[in-house]
Amino acid sequence: MPDLRETRSKAKIALATMALLDVAAVIVYFSPLIGSEPARRAQLQQLWVELQQKTHEVQPLVGLDKKIPVAHRQIDDFYKIRLPAADSAISESIGKLAIQSGVKIGSIKYDMKDPLVLGLQPVRLEADVAGDYLQLVRFINALERDPMFFLVDSVQLGGEQGGTVKLQMKAETYLKVGA
């Protein structure tokens, strides 16, 4: 016959251990380590807001692997279409825009800078342009919208005589090096 005393003592030890674990769990549950229910809800709400912010920050990166080849094609197209290979293309484009807008170009100075690492050579332009106000506005607008890439840096009033306004304009463009 099995020994009931030994089985009872093992059962008492097991029950006492489980009771101690229950007491420890109740103490931890109500202790400041876990916090009150409103504090836990506030923490949950804060974590939810952080999750939403992080999700919003990461959103532009979704599909990045597909965006990179598209960006490379756009860069290649930009170099092909918007950047000239010869400096004569710059003069031709500015002359065409001047004729279309009805302004007269007094003088243009070109300042070729040292080539950049990217295979581009900066070209600074300084031009004296004359025409009526509307013609000058059209010229500058057309210059900025031209397929060739121009950055208008500054425009200074040079004077006015009989409705003709003279401007001194500074702009910048780039040439493809080794094209």
What is the correct CATH architecture of the domain at 85-176?
2-Layer Sandwich
Average per-residue pLDDT, rounded, comes to 88
Helix content: 40-55%
CATH topology of the domain at 85-176: Alpha-Beta Plaits
Strand elements, count = 4
CATH H-level superfamily of the domain at 85-176 = Ribosomal protein S6/Translation elongation factor EF1B
Rounded to the nearest angstrom, the distance between the terminal CA atoms is: 102 Å
The secondary-structure element order is HHHHEEHEE
Assembly type of the chains comes to single chain
Strand percentage, roughly?
25-35%
Radius of gyration: 38 Å
Number of helical stretches of at least 4 residues: 5
Shape: rod-shaped
Alpha-beta content class? alpha+beta
Largest sheet, spatial ordering of strands: 1-2-4-3
Low-confidence stretches: none
- Name of the CATH class of the domain at 85-176: Alpha Beta
Summarize the biggest pleated sheet.
4 strands, antiparallel
How would you describe what is shown here?
Helices cover 54% and strands 25% of the residues. With 179 residues, it is α+β, with helices and mostly antiparallel strands. It has a domain at 85-176: Alpha-Beta Plaits. It is rod-shaped.
